[in-house]
Amino acid sequence: MNTLAAVMQLLVAAAFVSIPLVRHRFGPVAKAAAEAELRRQNVRPGILEENRLRFDAGGHETAAPVAVAAVMTATAALNLAGADPAQLLTWIFSSLVVLMNVVIVYSNRTAVKSVQAAFRRKGDPELTRIQVEPFLAAAEGAFPRWVRAQTYLRNAVVFAGSAVALVAVSVV
């Protein structure tokens, strides 16, 4: 059963690595679409850079998913080796991954409100003029259609893969 847990953990790792890969590939196109929407709203596109708003895979957009993938890969290796701490670490990390993915899904579903609130907190009148919903829709629309399906698949792999790994290490 440790092999099954390891396979699931490797799938979860791959799912997390897919996030920065997609953002790296299509982020510049999304940024250009968002800037075009800002111009349509008579807002300077440079406001994105000034406030470090990105659509690519920079900073934590890469570091966090790669760190998760590394931890899941290391835990998978321990499971494959039959190491004593593998079960405990699987319980800890697979549970954390599920919780993190819940936060990711929630933040994606509440992105408009979150961005509006962030813009208000900045106190920049130009940011508060941005119509956030069309701004984000423009950026999202720049990603290929298959990215939405990839997002659903990634979430399914993370949730189901983590659950299967937890069950697999619990079977004696």
How would you characterize this protein structure?
- The protein is mainly alpha-helical.
- Helix content is 81%, strand content 0%.
- It has helices at 2-40, 47-50, 60-81, 86-109, 111-122, 125-128, 132-141, 146-170.
- Helix 1 (2-40) packs antiparallel against helix 3 and helix 4 (86-109) runs antiparallel to helix 8.
- The longest helix is centred in the first third of the chain and has 39 residues, at 2-40.
- The model has no long low-confidence stretch (mean pLDDT 93).
Largest sheet: none
Helix/strand/pairing category: mainly alpha
| Spatial gap, N to C terminus | 9 Å
Strand content: under 5%
Shape: elongated
Instruction: Please trace the helix and strand order, writing H or E for each element.
Output: HHHHHHHH
Total count of helical runs of at least 4 residues: 8
- Number of extended strands: 0
Summarize the structure.
Helices cover 81% and strands 0% of the residues. By secondary structure, the chain is mainly α.
Keywords:
elongated, mainly alpha, 8 helices, 172 residues
Layout of helices and strands:
Blueprint: H1 2-40, H2 47-50, H3 60-81, H4 86-109, H5 111-122, H6 125-128, H7 132-141, H8 146-170
Helix pairs in contact: 1-3, 1-7, 1-8, 3-4, 4-8
